[in-house]
Amino acid sequence: MLILSLILLFICVIASFVFGSRVVGKSDLLAGLFFSEVESYGASVVRERIPRTVFSLFCGAALGVSGALMQAVTRNPIADPSILGVNTGAALFVVCGLAFLQISTAAQYIGLAIAGAMITAVFVYGIGSMGRAGATPLKLVLAGAATSAALSSLIGAIMLPRSYVMDQFRFWQVGSVGSANWSAITTFLPFLIIGIILAIIAAPALNALALGDEVATGQGVRTGVLRLVAAFAGVILCGAATALAGPIGFIGLLSTHLVRLVLGTDLRFIIPMSALTGAAILTISDVSGRLLGSPGELEAGVVTAFIGAPLLIFLATRMKVRSL
């Protein structure tokens, strides 16, 4: 599975360099990657696509791991940042930053998006935990959907009287990796590293948590601290990616279910493989959007929604939505 994923990832990277509004040949590809002194148009196109490709890999990895963590923490097989409303919470804070604080830098976007994602995640989990049964999968999804709808209305209320905010937000909202640059990637990278390290460290304990709180506690796991750490890692990954790429949905859902289908339920394998699979899915979605929308392009968030929405419907109607 690892070798297959790496091969698939390599193919996605090459496709991202080659395909777009202009398809480049082998000589231009090699010149753009390895010979900076060559100044042909095709080589310059390849160089322009490098940061976009790198960011799509990083962003897809972050969303893949975030989805795996949220599914583990909530014990909900259809948990995803977009489904639980976390993306919308991040979007609300970004809109507030644009409207009231005039934010412009990547660090400002990331800081506000992470704050919004954290507050929304805590709120949704709190609402979903009410009642005697606690945080069941169905209650969490319903709480996430209701919260997302309410926050979307609030976003609209903030934007409508402010046309300049709407102009900035409407491109970001679709979800795209096309505006990536090295400065944004450098700002994003520490959040990616911290989130993935925390996820890998928490994976063995999350396996115990999947057996139930009582079993996990009997094995020495501090379930409250574990949920806090894992949720924090998932939120900073989702928030940082959403801040720079927009609310791209379903990557966490797609990647983790594909990995779980092959490798089973061991999070020690699911988390790193979800990172690779998420990176590949977002990169190939970006490439597909360029080809489908040629001579323009279709944003990656639109492509992932076309793929992810039918999968969510299938999971909701054909599978028994139960705790993991």
TrEMBL record:
The chain crosses the membrane at residues 54-72, 84-103, 109-128, 140-160, 180-203, 224-249, 269-288, 300-319. Belongs to the binding-protein-dependent transport system permease family. FecCD subfamily. It is found in: Cell membrane. GO terms for biological process: siderophore-iron import into cell. One of its GO terms (molecular function) is transmembrane transporter activity. This is Iron ABC transporter permease. InterPro entries: ABC_BtuC-like (IPR037294), ABC_transptr_permease_BtuC (IPR000522).
